[in-house]
Amino acid sequence: MDIWDYVEAVLVINMDRSVDRWQAFQRSVEGLIPPERLHRISAVPGVELPGYGEKPWFRKRTESKARQWAGVAGCAASHRRAIAFAKQQGYRRVLILEDDAEFTPAWQQGQSFVAESLSSLTGPFLFYLGYHKPNPHGVQLAAQQNFSLWRTEGVLTTHAYMISEELYDLILRMLPQEGPALWPWVARYRAYDTFLRAYISTRSDVATYLVYPTLINQSGAVSDISTAEGDLSSMLCRRPPLPLTLTRRLTSPLRALKIRTNSLYTLTRNYLLGLPGLRKKKR
């Protein structure tokens, strides 16, 4: 089976100034993505968004982290552009990539397994072809040769995920357009990948899937959009998802409530004090 029988377009987020990066990406996917399915989405520079550097969201405690928060906002706005484009074009399912995505050697073999999985999926879903730590919890639905399909609670990173048309309107409604409203959204939800995990994947009408092992990784280069630096290789999940135990299922509503309560607290605190300095990730 061929994945392109079930995915109508590949949308690649890329900065206008990063011509070399776009050209390098095109070369890297020759023979992997049909050229007519490949579309470039112009990424949003967060520092150019209205309200950047202004109160109430940018204050003394934000200091040198202001550009990183701009990157977070730009990333969210860029993915919104991609989803809006998919809806405008009438695509039923799309694969959204960031331009630092790298197809693994397992792609040629794994894509047919993904295609077979997609052939039976209906309704609103996210389907991740790459993801980072922490290891997600999930239930294995199918396995074939070296690959397995999992339904999970949600994962982190958005460098390589498929989305169905049933989710377009929901995300476009919850994620503001490119204007001042993006800053309170960032102050509450923080980042696009955490928003998908905590507020979209937790909905009872939305399914979140992933394939293990990952078929598309990140290069580890400095992101043009978020300005975050790798070594991303240390963040890759090199083992299958953890079992979704009965205890975790029963406590899921409590975790969801905690996330929503904390987000309102975070929004209020950030309004009063400004966006904080980002915590350094533990190695």
Q: How would you describe this protein?
A:
This protein is an alpha/beta fold and 283 residues long. Helix content is 35%, strand content 19%. The chain contains seven helices and eleven strands. It has helices at residues 19-28, 66-89, 107-118, 168-174, 182-189, 192-200, 246-273; strands at 9-14, 38-42, 93-98, 101-103, 125-128, 137-144, 147-152, 160-164, 207-212, 216-218, 242-243. Strands 2-1-3-8-5-9-7-6-11 form a nine-stranded mixed sheet, with helices on both faces. Strand 6 and strand 7 (147-152) form a beta hairpin. The chain is globular. The N and C termini lie far apart (39 Å).
Helix content: 25-40%
What fraction of the residues are assigned to beta strands by DSSP?
A: 15-25%
Output the structural class. Answer: alpha/beta
- Trace the largest sheet across and list its strands: 2-1-3-8-5-9-7-6-11
**Secondary-structure element order, N to C:** EHEHEEHEEEEHHHEEEH
Distance between the termini: 39 Å
Residue stretches low in confidence (pLDDT < 50, at least 5 long) are: none
Average pLDDT works out at 91
Gross geometry: globular
Number of helices: 7
Q: What's the gyration radius in Å?
A: 18 Å
Mind summarizing the main beta sheet?
9 strands, mixed
Number of strands: 11
